[in-house]
Amino acid sequence: MIKNRGSIFINTSYLILLLLCSLVVNGALDITHKTNGPPHVATEQETRDLKYYMTLASNSYCDNVIPLRQWDCPNCGKTSDMEIVQVFVTPKYDINAMVVRDDNLKRIVSVFRGSKTEKNFKADGEAAPVNYEDIPGALVHKGFYESYKEVATDIVSVVQKQIQQYPDYTLATTGHSLGAAIATLHGLDLHRQNFKVAVYSYAQPRLGNRGFALYAVDSGLPYHRITSRKDLYVDCPIYLLGILSYVHAGEEAWIQENDEILICPNGLESDDCYNSDNGLRSNDDHYRYFDLENNKECLYQGTMYLGYGICSLNQILELSFLD
């Protein structure tokens, strides 16, 4: 719940955070380094895969899918022949997730829903950095990390059983926004346990510091991070206190305004993709990911104020908008 003393700042907070998030794009913070080669336009197979995993991430927003385990939603005709193996709903952060099996393409996919409820936004707002596992110098967003920890044991157990039962199937994880951040942590967790897994992360906010990002880049995990046009939330959060900044990692697939997809190879966030498009960011572009807009009725219908959500003004200005 937003406290009364915080609400009077909310419109100003929005404008301040638009400016702060744009500092990274305009070069005020140097968080990029060279990737492993030049960008290329996505191939037909790459585009098919990107659309496939986005459909699953999109469908996870619909209540008939999670928790009811029914393919009943505007996009569900594309996934109706898949098996929803199990769904998960956690008490503290209301993380909604599912494990899906596609017997036609022989794929097992862990899917995490993005922000939709007050508990989700609380997780988004807890942006203080905490230690990531036993990796020296690696720090991650507290809310994202604790959200994954709340569901980790149960969902990994189901994935393990599915892989044991279907050893010739491929394994992937996906999600949009908050779900993308959790899917990335899930993918790294599975990778550390020697699962062969790929991550498809859509509209993901920054997840950790440079130490964490470099760990992800060098881990060997196939990490596909998809961005769209001028999506505001891809540019958040950044930490402006001291010298600590959150940094993106992975192979970036940037959906441009003409719908062409440019892929920047694995590395820290590149100046050749999303960061190449300077200027104010767009809240609407957060939902312009392939067929996500078809599930508009399932998405959060309110205003995602930055001070209450991913950009976490309470961390930047040391205000407390959350109980």
UniProtKB/TrEMBL annotation:
Pfam families: Lipase_3. The keyword Signal applies. One of its GO terms (biological process) is lipid metabolic process. Keywords: Hydrolase, Signal. The keyword Cell inner membrane does not apply. Residues 111-232 form the Fungal lipase-type domain. Residues 1-27 form the signal peptide. GO terms for molecular function: hydrolase activity. PANTHER family: LIPASE LIH1-RELATED, TRIACYLGLYCEROL LIPASE, PUTATIVE (AFU_ORTHOLOGUE AFUA_6G06510)-RELATED. This is Fungal lipase-type domain-containing protein.
